[in-house]
Amino acid sequence: MSHEITTLCTGCTACVRQCPVDAISGERKQLHQIDAALCIDCGACGRICPVDAILDANRQTVLHIKPALWEKPVWNYATCTACKICVQACPTGCIAILEPPRNGHGFAPGLPYLARPKDCIACTFCAVDCPFEVIRMASPEFV
Amino acid sequence: MNAVMGKVLWVDLTTGKIEEEQIPDGVYEKVLSGLGLAAYLLYQRIPPGADPLGPENVLGFVSGLLTGTGSVMTGRWMAAAKSPLTGTWGDANCGGTLAPAIKQCGYDGIFFTGISPTPVYLHVEHGHAELRDASDLWGKDTRETETALWERFEGRPAAVACIGMAGEKCSLIAGISNDQGRMAARSGLGAVMGAKRLKAIALHGAYRIPVHDAGEVQRLSDRFNRWIAFQPPFLPGKGMGLLGTLLRVMPLSMRQDGLLYKVILRKWGTTGMNQTSIEMGDSPIKNWRGSSATFKGKTANNLDPDRIIARETVKYHCYSCPLGCGGYCSLKGGGETHKPEYETVLALSGLLMHSDLDQVFEWNERLNRAGMDSISAGGSIAFALECFEQGLLTLEDTGGLALTWGNTAAIDALLDQMIRREGLGALLADGSRAAAQRLGKNASEYAVQAGGQELAMHDGRNDPGFALHAVVEPTPGRHTLGAYLYYEMFQLWKVIKGLPPVRLMFYPKGHKYRNDAEKGVWGAACSNLMAAANGAGLCMFGALVGLNRIPFFQWLNAATGWDKTPEAYMQIGWTIQNLRQAFNLRQGAPLRHAINARATGQPPQTEGANQGRTVPLDGLVRAYYTAMHWDPESGHPDVAAVTALGLPAPTEK
């Protein structure tokens, strides 16, 4: 399954620039295309598309959301096990491990955090993949 | 097909051709992924008699079936090839971050054939793979290589596996490094990579891993995590030595529970067992000649695990591991190193009659950077020290190094020579068996290895299971596939019908040396379980928590949508064992491996924890083969299990 671009596309290239896996091709003002073999169904193209021209894997229109309002992951460190599943799940590599200062005994592990919030595409993969329900997606003002 | 990507990548280094191969779903059902898939492919693709360092050998990097599905402690990756060290099936296993990255690139495995004319590395970018020039990386150590690659990708984190100088120089005890010095160290697979002039693989992928019932997999993980989170206060480091003494002097053995070991692992990592193991006779001392009576008191107390974690600055977790037995430690002269493992500490201390912990930290980092197996390096140096003592090596041979027991400066210089492959180091860089063959005379008496691979720091005279698995496994000399200790900790009898339980909490020590058929059944159960675990990417420490606690079989069903019983998964493990053994048969390699007599208590020790003990190996091996349904004398595998996979029967040479 993959996302798909409808004929509503105006060829603005916003999705081409947003796609974390370079799955979208198309010239300016031409209908763009998603390479199904590369698409990971993150939905970033749909959220950035100003004309709602993108269908998700279930053929539902993905609605445009202003990037400033995209939800971001928030960790509950009380239950985080530092297993790094979220770090690896992130397709843009924007989650990193914040290591405690290396001046004492290392009884604490490094914990994940949103190292590059601007690169977060609100795909929710980190929250979906966390087996311990440590991560919730929250509006940017609560992050 | 759920839980797997359904294809592998083949890279011909001679021609530079890169292509994908689809793997039929039925293959995964029969051999899982990971080690099983590697065995399935390498059995067919490596021609009989192939030179392990030649173009015909195939080097595979594989990821487990459960990796990335939401299960935990299932993030191990495996390298596999025909081993240049042992001439048999070779594999090595490592944590870190490479395992999920392989699958995220869209593959269950990446396989290399041929030999590149110039040094190269493979870069897989989501959906696109290419070989790139690595001339500028050649000569760099493993950590420098990884850092240089990250810089090349403008700080985008890539999962990297690479070799250091040891692999480049085809040292037969070289391994493959991942995540700044975590090693897939055994079987000499770093030399295969070096011979192929493949410096590294760097992976950037973002494919999602399909899961049948992700919610159920995660629920099982969450429930299992309660066992990992349970961490009551525990003994201080000094108490661990006393615990070992108690276990040594008691006339009874205690059935080990994995939960206790989990607490130790979480507190200290594998080094938690340093002194306990020395005291109870699990750690070989002075090239397997010494004992708890030789290495004791202040000397042994230097290895107090509290002293090791006093250096730990941050804990290190492999991918998908809530336990976190690893850590980074500061080095005395500045810099840091992965917390040395128990194996490394003992191979570089007790085995050499040396106990300067600062030096062990430094050697650990040096070996990780050079990409050399610390077990085999320690074993080979111990061999050299004994040869020097016995007059087989003279000051002239050693270039003036006085290789006396515990001589820090001399060992330090020798280690450097091994890495650079110069002087006496050139003799030892291929392991102790090769060195003994070149030295001649009675040198092989002092090379403590099985099938060419140095034995790990677990003494078969204390737990005969370690000696058994060192000779019957298709990869000889390994300590991570089975032992009596592991059978007790796996508690498999609670989930697999028909396996004999260990009911008593305490039992007479003599029971371990009794050669009943039951021990063969224990061994076969451990082998089959670990084969399946390596097909799924399960960490051995996860399995040691106990199969009654870790939902290994339930995870497999939930992730794939299969409805198999635990017994059916054990049967898959058995099939993988057959494939690996048939690989050896097809290659004309030994099926039962020779082990140094000293490691089996011949002659028995006269003092220490293992005083007077001899491993009744021949009977044990027969019992193991019988339980595996293999030929009890020759270890000939069940050929029907191999041909049932649609593979050709191995023809004996």
Which whole number gives the mean pLDDT of chain A?
A: 93
Which class best fits the helix and strand makeup of chain A?
A: alpha+beta
Contiguous uncertain segments of 5+ residues of chain B: none
Average predicted confidence as pLDDT of chain B: 96
Structural account:
The complex is a heterodimer of chains A (143) and B (653). A two-stranded antiparallel sheet of chain A has the order 1-4. Chain A contains 4 helices and 8 strands; from the N terminus they run βαββαββαββαβ. Chain A is α+β, with helices and mostly antiparallel strands. Chain A is elongated. The longest helix of chain B is centred in the last third of the chain and has 22 residues, at 566-587. The model of chain B has no long low-confidence stretch (mean pLDDT 96). Classes of the chains: A alpha+beta (143), B alpha+beta (653).
What descriptors fit this protein?
heterodimer, A: about 140 residues, alpha+beta, two-stranded antiparallel ribbon, 4 helices, 8 strands, about 15% helix, elongated, B: about 650 residues, 6-stranded mixed sheet, 26 helices
